[in-house]
């Protein structure tokens, strides 16, 4: 009997992985912005054309890559961020799976330009559907620029599945805002079809929130701060009278990574107990700091879900910190025996 199992060629494996990592242009935006943050950039610019269907480009002034690393960065499981399995439990970077660039390069036209600070000449690589078309030296600024064009050019079913520009742009803005909110100390710009949508200077958290949500949001923010052995909580919640029927200003970050978590969302609402009108959602921008050993973020390729060691304790710390700051700012009477 002949054997029938074959190892898939790399470009096929990359395309399969891309199916999980890249659902739409906004996924490319998230991956490129996170790489720029991991590269220690202090200024990051996002340029988008036609809601990302034609172009998503991220330019950073971070550490850049040398010629060899630039080429390697496009391979699957190629990462500078972890070296061993143990490292998964002490992550300080956004990335670690080493598959974003390989996946994106498998389903788009990608142009990478990069230069390290101490080098005079940088390097430029063009890839189309995992195939390197050319690599050559170029004169370029310190840092990295990655331009992704014609997303899903070789997967028509995916391309046709994309929604209207308005919907895709909304997803892109969501991702941009999440990364910008997670890193107020980094300057971010965003341009769509030559319109400057955001111009955010490096600043503190309150100013960053106001820069994104608009000046009116300033008066509704109530600070939250709590520190226990297990968890540090900081950030802002919106005063209950500003709660809206629609969602959209709810953000939870764990170790500076935006996450979605119904359980923690519930903990925050529990802290508002009795202060919200029916079916309204308060805004919140909560930043949790927790020992990376006590969480697992490697449960989904997009890393927006997390497993916590001690969910219940985290729930009650969040609930009480929200309740406490509402009380402290005289938003609700907090009775002494409840403290
Ligand atoms: P991961 O982020 O999980 O390591 P990626 O495929 O996103 O995987 O990137 C692969 C590698 O390419 C990174 O580990 C990093 O070394 C390098 N890289 C990617 N983007 C940049 C950037 N903007 N600046 C510097 N290095 C980068
Ligand atoms: Mg990455």
UniProtKB/TrEMBL annotation:
Keyword terms of this UniProt record: DNA damage, DNA repair
Family of this protein: Belongs to the DNA mismatch repair MutL/HexB family.
Role according to the record: This protein is involved in the repair of mismatches in DNA. It is required for dam-dependent methyl-directed DNA mismatch repair. May act as a 'molecular matchmaker', a protein that promotes the formation of a stable complex between two or more DNA-binding proteins in an ATP-dependent manner without itself being part of a final effector complex.
Taxonomic classification: Bacteria, Pseudomonadati, Bacteroidota, Flavobacteriia, Flavobacteriales
Domain DNA mismatch repair protein S5 residue range list: 209-327
Signal peptide: none
DNA damage listed as a keyword: yes
CC per GO annotation: mismatch repair complex
GO terms for biological process, alphabetical: mismatch repair
Protein name stated in the entry: DNA mismatch repair protein MutL
One function term, GO molecular function aspect: mismatched DNA binding
């Amino acid at each position: 009997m002949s054997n029938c199992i074959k190892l898939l060629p790399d470009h096929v494996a990359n395309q399969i992985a891309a199916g999980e990592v890249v659902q739409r242009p906004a996924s490319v935006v998230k991956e490129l912005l996170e790489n720029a943050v991991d590269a220690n950039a202090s200024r990051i610019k996002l340029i988008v054309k036609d809601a990302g269907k034609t172009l998503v480009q991220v330019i950073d002034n971070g550490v850049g890559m040398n010629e060899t690393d630039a080429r390697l960065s496009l391979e699957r499981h190629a990462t500078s961020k972890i070296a061993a399995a143990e490292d998964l439990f002490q992550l300080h970077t956004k990335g670690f799976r080493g598959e974003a660039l390989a996946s994106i390069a498998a389903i788009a036209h990608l142009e990478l330009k990069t230069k390290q600070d101490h080098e005079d000449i940088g390097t430029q690589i063009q890839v189309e559907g995992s195939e390197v078309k050319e690599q050559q030296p170029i004169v370029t600024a310190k840092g990295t620029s990655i331009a992704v064009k014609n997303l899903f050019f070789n997967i028509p079913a995916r391309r046709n599945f994309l929604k209207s520009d308005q919907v895709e742009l909304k997803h892109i803005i969501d991702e941009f805002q999440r990364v910008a909110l997670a890193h107020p100390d980094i300057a971010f710009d965003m341009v769509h079809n030559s319109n400057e949508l955001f111009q955010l200077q490096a600043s503190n958290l309150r100013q960053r929130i106001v820069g994104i949500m608009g000046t009116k949001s300033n008066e509704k923010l109530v600070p939250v701060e709590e520190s226990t052995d297990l968890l540090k909580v900081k950030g802002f919640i919106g005063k209950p009278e500003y709660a809206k029927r629609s969602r959209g200003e709810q953000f939870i970050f764990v170790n500076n990574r935006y996450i979605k978590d119904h359980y923690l969302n519930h903990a925050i609402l529990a802290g508002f107990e009795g202060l919200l009108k029916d079916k309204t959602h308060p805004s919140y921008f909560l930043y949790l700091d927790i020992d990376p050993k006590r969480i697992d973020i490697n449960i989904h390729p997009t890393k927006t879900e997390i497993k916590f060691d001690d969910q219940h304790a985290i729930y009650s710390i969040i609930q009480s910190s929200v309740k406490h700051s509402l009380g402290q700012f005289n938003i609700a009477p907090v009775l002494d025996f409840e403290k």
